[in-house]
């Protein structure tokens, strides 16, 4: 079987976000592989290491030239080869799922792993939309996964708690914290990764046409009071805080 | 028509449904507001729904007894097509954001995810949403047929309309679920739900230990009638259940007061609670980033200040 892991590149969580014109400007920001997707890359490697008959693990990224870095990270972690659909255009997840489905079919993939939530756009849609395009079931917010033959079992979070599940491949699994601890690429593996295939695909092949337009972006700042209370005298500090909660914030009686 | 898929639990309409009705009313989209109730034994839910909608479509079927993404997507799509809906509104809950993209693909519709505000601009539906760990508010838009998910807590719950809407039973052809649920664990809390609490007390690693968490975080929450939250570090360490996690990968909350005990204030945490009306932080580390977003901050030891707070709150 072949596994496809979807990889995105996002600003580092601590990176400063700025706006130019009507949109977010990431010029100069440190970019990293999306942590949620990294769980997916790691899980693909672990499924193979646990003895599942995984022939190839392929990483796919869609985005500008610099996304190559995220694909190189995946290759250095142990992915076999990478595909980069290089485009500067920003597409919504439902549109991108068209390309994901086409790649999955062309590469004879039976399992797709993708992060449950994007660290930059906050979307949770890519996994579900790709599953629908392929006519596959999906398992979202997965934090435990096993593969036996073509049967997936594991556990995932739902609205009011968590569920154990069982499903048959092909399927899409969205990943999250708790699933695993992604490995750091070692220097020898980083060197080896440079020789691995990183194929460039022409976006025109996939005929993507975005449906969602970004009209405006604003940094949200909210003035906070930043009133500091001296904590050296615990009794006095507690008393002062309670009075603020009662009289200024009016949240307790 | 505007089609809203009602959310309900334990035979009661969820607050999120009333919020979606407000979103529909504010969207500027035309046509009757139609609530779709999917489930089994949902007559009471349908009656509640009729109070706020122009019409209610009820699919009371054994196959809908438990939620499944593919089944919910198929049901919603059939009704949207038959009713020629131009706008489909789905809750921004975990399950809603799981099946809504499937509906968008099935309908070949644009998808606006996790909206906090809706309006119309000519033919386009515009949605505001938070991005970049809730540090940016983006406005996005799409024309034509649109599927929208609405972020819980972003709209005021709708008041009943003048006359109750008509109820109609609908029949559906549904696929067999392909994901089998082999076990379920429901995380229940006797306290007020995090997303509905006016006051939340959250503990971070700075609290020190699971025992201290129970003593100080739960102790303070119980003495002032608040919900209990936890940071990811605390959940990862196994001190508290995931259901209590606040932040990017946990719950998004916006209570009237958010009291953070021993919370450092990582950006991922701030993205889940930064919209709270009042933020109060108690932390030993004067340099903790949480103080930058706090309205009231105390640099001090949770072990000393919280017992004093609990004591004083009882007076």
TrEMBL record, chain A:
Residues 21-210 form the Electron transfer flavoprotein alpha/beta-subunit N-terminal domain. Pfam families: ETF. SMART domains: ETF. InterPro entries: ETF_a/b_N (IPR014730), ETF_b (IPR012255), ETF_beta_N (IPR033948), Rossmann-like_a/b/a_fold (IPR014729). Keywords: Electron transport, Transport. Belongs to the ETF beta-subunit/FixA family. This is Electron transfer flavoprotein subunit beta.
TrEMBL record, chain B:
It comes from the Bacteria. InterPro entries: DHS-like_NAD/FAD-binding_dom (IPR029035), ETF_a/b_N (IPR014730), ETF_a/FixB (IPR001308), ETF_alpha_N (IPR033947), ETF_asu_C (IPR014731), Rossmann-like_a/b/a_fold (IPR014729). Pfam families: ETF, ETF_alpha. Residues 2-181 form the Electron transfer flavoprotein alpha/beta-subunit N-terminal domain. CDD domains: ETF_alpha. PANTHER family: ELECTRON TRANSFER FLAVOPROTEIN ALPHA (PTHR43153), ELECTRON TRANSFER FLAVOPROTEIN SUBUNIT ALPHA, MITOCHONDRIAL (PTHR43153:SF1). Belongs to the ETF alpha-subunit/FixB family. This is Electron transfer flavoprotein subunit alpha/FixB family protein.
């Amino acid at each position: 079987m072949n596994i496809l892991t979807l990889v995105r590149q996002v600003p580092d969580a601590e990176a400063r976000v700025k706006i130019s014109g009507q949109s977010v400007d990431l010029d100069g920001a440190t970019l990293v592989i999306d942590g949620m997707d990294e769980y997916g890359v790691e899980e693909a490697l672990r499924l193979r290491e646990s003895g599942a008959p995984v022939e190839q693990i392929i990483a796919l990224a869609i985005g500008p030239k610099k996304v190559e870095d995220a694909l190189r990270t995946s290759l250095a972690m142990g992915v076999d080869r990478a595909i980069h659909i290089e485009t500067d255009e920003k597409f919504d997840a439902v549109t991108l799922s068209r390309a994901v489905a086409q790649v999955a079919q062309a590469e004879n993939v039976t399992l797709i792993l993708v992060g449950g939530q994007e660290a930059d756009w906050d979307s949770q849609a890519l996994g579900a939309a790709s599953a629908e395009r392929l006519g596959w079931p999906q398992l979202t917010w997965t934090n435990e996964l096993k593969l036996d033959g073509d049967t997936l079992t594991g556990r995932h979070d739902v609205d009011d708690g968590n569920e154990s599940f069982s499903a048959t491949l092909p399927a899409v699994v969205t990943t999250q914290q708790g699933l695993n601890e992604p490995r750091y690429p070692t220097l020898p593996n980083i060197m080896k990764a440079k020789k691995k295939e990183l194929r460039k695909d022409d976006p025109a092949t996939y005929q993507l046409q975005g449906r969602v337009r970004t009209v405006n972006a604003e940094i949200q700042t909210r003035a906070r009071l930043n009133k500091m209370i001296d904590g050296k005298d615990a009794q006095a500090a507690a008393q002062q805080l309670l009075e603020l909660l009662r009289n200024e914030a009016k949240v307790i009686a | 028509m505007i089609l809203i898929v009602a959310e309900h639990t334990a035979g009661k309409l969820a607050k999120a449904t009333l919020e979606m009705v407000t979103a529909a009313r504010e969207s500027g989209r035309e046509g009757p507001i139609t609530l779709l109730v999917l489930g089994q034994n949902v007559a009471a839910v349908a009656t509640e729904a009729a109070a706020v909608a122009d019409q209610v479509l009820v699919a009371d079927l054994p196959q809908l007894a438990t939620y499944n993404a593919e089944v919910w997507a198929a049901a919603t799509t059939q009704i949207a097509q038959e009713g020629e809906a131009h706008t489909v509104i789905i809750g921004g809950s975990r399950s809603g954001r799981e099946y809504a993209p499937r509906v968008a693909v099935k309908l070949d519709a644009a998808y606006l995810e996790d909206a906090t505000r809706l309006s119309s601009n000519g033919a386009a539906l515009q949605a505001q949403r938070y991005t970049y760990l809730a540090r940016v508010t983006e406005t996005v838009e799409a024309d034509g047929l649109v599927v929208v998910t609405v972020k819980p807590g972003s709209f005021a719950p709708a008041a009943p309309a003048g006359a109750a809407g008509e109820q109609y039973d609908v029949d559906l052809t549904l696929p067999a679920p392909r994901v089998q649920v082999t076990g379920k664990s429901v995380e229940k809390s006797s306290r007020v739900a995090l997303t509905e609490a006016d006051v939340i007390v959250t503990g971070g690693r700075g609290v020190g230990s699971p025992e201290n968490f129970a003593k100080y975080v739960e102790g303070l929450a119980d003495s002032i009638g608040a919900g209990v939250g936890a940071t990811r570090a605390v959940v990862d360490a196994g001190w508290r259940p995931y259901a209590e996690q606040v932040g990017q990968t946990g719950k998004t909350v916006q209570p009237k007061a958010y009291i953070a005990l021993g919370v450092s204030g990582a950006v991922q945490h701030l993205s889940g609670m930064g919209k709270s009306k009042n933020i109060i932080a108690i932390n030993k580390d004067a340099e903790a980033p949480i103080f930058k977003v706090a309205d009231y901050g105390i640099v001090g030891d949770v072990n000393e200040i919280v017992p004093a707070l609990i004591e004083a709150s009882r007076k």
